[in-house]
UniProtKB/TrEMBL annotation:
<dbReference type="InterPro" id="IPR013154">
    <property type="entry name" value="ADH-like_N"/>
</dbReference>
<dbReference type="InterPro" id="IPR011032">
    <property type="entry name" value="GroES-like_sf"/>
</dbReference>
<dbReference type="Pfam" id="PF08240">
    <property type="entry name" value="ADH_N"/>
</dbReference>
<dbReference type="InterPro" id="IPR047618">
    <property type="entry name" value="QOR-like"/>
</dbReference>
<dbReference type="InterPro" id="IPR036291">
    <property type="entry name" value="NAD(P)-bd_dom_sf"/>
</dbReference>
<dbReference type="InterPro" id="IPR002364">
    <property type="entry name" value="Quin_OxRdtase/zeta-crystal_CS"/>
</dbReference>
<feature type="domain" description="Enoyl reductase (ER)">
    <location>
        <begin position="11"/>
        <end position="322"/>
    </location>
</feature>
<keyword id="KW-0560">Oxidoreductase</keyword>
<keyword id="KW-0521">NADP</keyword>
<protein>
    <submittedName>
        <fullName>NADPH:quinone reductase</fullName>
        <ecNumber>1.6.5.5</ecNumber>
    </submittedName>
</protein>
<dbReference type="InterPro" id="IPR020843">
    <property type="entry name" value="ER"/>
</dbReference>
<dbReference type="Pfam" id="PF00107">
    <property type="entry name" value="ADH_zinc_N"/>
</dbReference>
<dbReference type="InterPro" id="IPR013149">
    <property type="entry name" value="ADH-like_C"/>
</dbReference>
<dbReference type="GO" id="GO:0003960">
    <property type="term" value="F:quinone reductase (NADPH) activity"/>
</dbReference>
């Protein structure tokens, strides 16, 4: 029988279990995918800990790439043998084999490997909506991306640079600063020894930024607001340090009529035409060489617990994958 990672209670990495699963023939609208690589993302830890609740017991993981083995009734745009990838629900990507809603699958271009497909889609589609839809980055903009050496961060740095922006990024070490710089970050800020809001004001001559992309949450939120110019936009798209506590929305007026949004990939890609357009945009910047997708860590799928420990200890950079 095929194997998968599942969890029966929320908690630390130790709750992840390697179990045999039953994968029936695909139902109407589904495709069965033999997975060649699985993406590791910080949101996976939110499901495991219960920050984002899931009905238990549950599979885990939102992203993978593989080959279609069979399709159910009503699926006419996919066929056995197609190379595909996906990023999004339902949970259960940490598996050797699974059925997926066919309308969530996108075909991989030939130049894109399974490893790249599993490493890039969730993070790359996130970068796409952040840069092209939530706030439409223009040539000459200066932006701030937190966790610039992470998976989303390295893609955002490269893509924003290709769009003609100046990129400021926060990182946790000198090594990560060099990695971010090598991927287009003009001003890496090591937050462990520098106040990033003060540095942003120095870099911008006191003007502030049109946008901040913040996936850290509690530890960076208020200082991120301090980085914005009047009418600037705060884009909170994660909570790696914990959820942001309640705060007085009147502060947004006092700080310059600021905008704030809490977007998710699931909303932006909910309609299949939007998903396909976003994926095409991502594949274009990757296959053209404007954005490099580098897999910096590989773990065996059955060792998902160890992968989560490395991720939460911030010992990873760029993209990580799990190999069935």
């Amino acid at each position: 029988m095929p194997q998968a990672i599942r969890f029966h209670q929320v908690g630390g990495p130790e709750v992840l279990q390697w179990e045999a699963i039953d994968v029936p023939s695909p139902a109407q609208g589904e495709a069965r995918v033999r997975q060649h690589a699985v993406g590791l993302n910080y949101i996976d830890t939110y499901h495991r800990t219960g920050l984002y609740p899931a009905p238990l017991p549950s599979g885990i993981g939102l992203e993978a790439a593989g080959v279609v083995e069979a399709v159910g009734e009503g699926v006419d745009d996919l066929a056995p043998g197609d190379r595909v990838a996906y990023a999004g629900g339902p949970l259960g990507a940490y598996a050797e084999l699974r059925n997926m809603p066919a309308d969530r699958l996108v075909k991989l271009p030939d130049p894109v490997s399974f490893e790249q497909g599993a490493a890039m889609l969730l993070q790359g589609l996130t970068a796409q909506y952040l840069l092209r839809r939530t706030y439409h980055v223009q040539p000459g903009d200066t932006i701030l991306i937190h966790a610039a050496a992470g998976g989303v961060g390295l893609i955002v740095c490269q893509w924003a640079k290709a769009l003609g922006a100046t990129v400021i990024g926060t990182v946790g070490s000198d090594e990560k600063a060099e990695l971010a710089r090598a991927h287009g970050c003009d001003h890496p800020i090591v937050y462990t020894r520098e106040n990033f809001a003060e540095r942003v004001r120095e870099i911008t001559g006191g003007e502030g930024l049109p946008v901040v992309y913040d996936s850290i949450g509690k530890d960076t939120f208020m200082e991120s607001l301090d980085c914005l110019r009047p009418l600037g936009m705060m884009v909170l798209f994660g909570a790696a340090s914990g959820p942001v506590p309640p705060f007085d929305l009147g502060l947004l007026a006092k700080m310059g009529s600021l905008f704030i949004t809490r977007p998710t990939l699931f909303t932006y890609s909910a309609k299949r035409p939007d998903l396909l357009a976003m994926a095409a945009d991502l594949f274009d910047v990757v296959t053209s060489g404007k954005v490099r997708i580098e897999v910096n860590q590989r773990f065996a799928l059955k060792d998902a617990s160890q992968a989560h420990r490395e991720l939460e200890a911030r010992r990873t950079t760029g993209s990580s994958i799990l190999l069935p």
